[in-house]
Amino acid sequence: MLCLAASSSLHAQRDGAAVLAPTPVDATIAGRIVAAASSAPVPVARAIVTLSGAGIEHAAIADDDGRFVFADLPAGRYVIGARKVAWIDTAYGATRAGGAGTPVALAGGERRELTMTMARGAAIKGRLTMSTGVPATRTSVRAVPADGRPSPRGVDPAITDDRGVYRIYGLPPGEYVVQASPPGIPAMMQALLRPSAQEVDNTFAQLNSRHAAARAGTIRSAASPVPTPARQTVYAPVFYPGTSIRDQAAVVAVSAGDERAGVDFTFSATEMSRVAGRVAGSATSSAGAQIRLQARTGVAVQSTAAATDGTFAFAAVAPGTYEVIARLDPHRRVPGPNEPAIARVGPVTAADGSSADTLWARSDVVASGQDVEGLGLTLLPGSAMSGRVQFATDRGAPVPAGVSVRLTPVGVRQMPVVTSSSFTTFRQTDVAPDGHFDAVGVAPGTYQLSLLLPPALTADGWWARSAVADGIDLLDVTTDMTPGVDVRDVDVRLSQQHAALTGRLQLPDGRPGSAYFIIAFSADPRARRVDARRTHATRPADDGVFVLDDVPPGDYLLAVLWDFEPAMLQAPGFFEQAAAVAVPFSLAEGERRDQRFEIGR
User: What is the pTM of this model?
Assistant: First the structure.
């Protein structure tokens, strides 16, 4: 899949002022959109052209013959694509459905005629029933990528009809997990208290015992055992082929245009678990410790507070894998004896009062219908990160309001920063006018450091160039925050200098290598991650020219690929394979390098 690229020549320049001549707007892009399977026209598709680097987008609706025209365009590099409901988004030059396209280098006054192919999206169809056999009507069913990525754009959940039948359409090729949410019927949404056979036997035994005691003239003590509470069952979300546990779901693979029928499954009343334990580790008392049960995505499921003896419990926990987080703020008022801690469903709304004294604890728990008792949470002190933000060109200049430092937990997806929540493990700290910041009470875990700048700074081209502590740029790597171990003297620099690599990829015979993909990544293995700011991927335009903008200064490797999609970055050994055939290059701050690459024979 990888092919060798060799550098043939290079030229470099630094940022500087340039006098730009007026750009004529007399170029045209005209084209036709056809179906990949039949070459028939695709009418009423939305064609889109975007001028690279400027973010200027133009759209047009294709006519009945699939034709579109964009006139009066300035010269430049354009990305051309098309969208239509139930079809897969396409890009001009893409070699497969949903793949990246080839940008078009449009000269002044040029008229470019082109053809784009579109493929119909795949569909998954099935029937959903209740455990009683009746159809599960008006129920939401969705297909989510099996690898955990967000759902594709434009693919909406399906709603079952009166027969319980659903059909999800417009899916790009890939592997999916099909999930259904409980039906929107109040009686089905409510918990069903269904005692087990043993619980029924226990209840009858206790009633018989009371009856015998009453005939003997004895009085039942208030301290006598009470009947064991019935186990709670509910209709929980279910995954195909009929499990409530995400990791046990079957994977449904589809290709473009597929119609996968027969994906039928059933809602069953699922036994819920009780999760209970004790919080310990505080030098004084663990009473009032705030405890949250959350899904692996970081979304809160239930929350409660520890009792005076440190115990806590969550009732009616659906099957799944969770994380239990405890937080104790010594400055928080502890509920009195007449203020019982009752678990509630939904996010926590208490104000965030984290301080250097805040204690934290974490534990993983798996609920599978059986009660989880005796979960131990040992409170440990949070840690801190502190440092100073400075402008690279004027270190003594005051930092304007609105600049903040953010620590984001690694692995938490699609979770907004809610600083008002007492459970949020995000830490966002404002930077003082003198540039100093001090994030205290940080929960143990692995974080990604980032900087938030106000619009006034970003409009002037300012960006976070580096955040160095002990010789390591924390913007490029994740940081482990360990209880009692602080990260100090973080040197954050803001810069207006933007580096870029402009290159030309050519074949051995001199023709442009527009059919390939370019990926540039850090020469330092520690900075190689899927979402790293030093990982850039693109595709050359039809003239072989490619541009990598806003590349942080440093040492890089550049490789050429036959094919590429973002999911490849997650494959084990991907970066090592790419590094073996890559060409090194370096960028200084503000440098704009122009370099040619030739694909090896």
Answer: 0.72
Per DSSP, the chain holds a count of helices (H) and strands (E) of 4, 47
- What is the separation of C-alpha 172 from the centre of its chain, rounded to a whole number of angstroms? 19
Query: Which pair of structure tokens corresponds to residue 55?
Result: 């973010």
Q: 367 CB contacts (<8 Å, ≥6 apart)?
A: 272, 273, 275, 317, 318, 319, 320, 321, 322
Where do you find CATH 2.60.40.10 in the chain?
2-9+498-599, 24-118, 274-380, 382-495
Beta strands 46-51 and 76-83: pairing type?
antiparallel
Q: Is 168 within 8 Å of 142 (Cβ atoms)? A: yes
As a whole number of angstroms, the distance between CA 310 and CA 377 comes to: 10
**Contacts of residue 153, Cβ cutoff 8 Å, sequence gap at least 6:** 89
In this model, does residue 151 exceed pLDDT 70?
yes
pLDDT score at 153: 79
CATH 2.60.40.1120 positions along the chain are 122-187+234-269
In angstroms, the Cα distances linking 177 to 236, 238, 295, 312, 455 are 16, 11, 18, 34, 40
Q: What is the pLDDT of residues 420-470, one digit of tens each?
A: 344 556 788 999 999 999 998 888 888 999 999 999 999 999 999 999 999
Going by the DSSP 8-state scheme, the letter that residue 248 receives in this structure is G
Closest C-alpha among 526, 542, 539, 541 to residue 575: 526
CA distance 565 to 563: 7
Residues 6+ positions from 212 with CB-CB distance below 8 Å = none
Question: What's the fold here for domain 382-495?
Answer: Immunoglobulin-like (2.60.40)
| Fold that domain 2-9+498-599 belongs to in CATH | Immunoglobulin-like (2.60.40)
Residues 43, 82 contacting (CB under 8 angstroms) = no
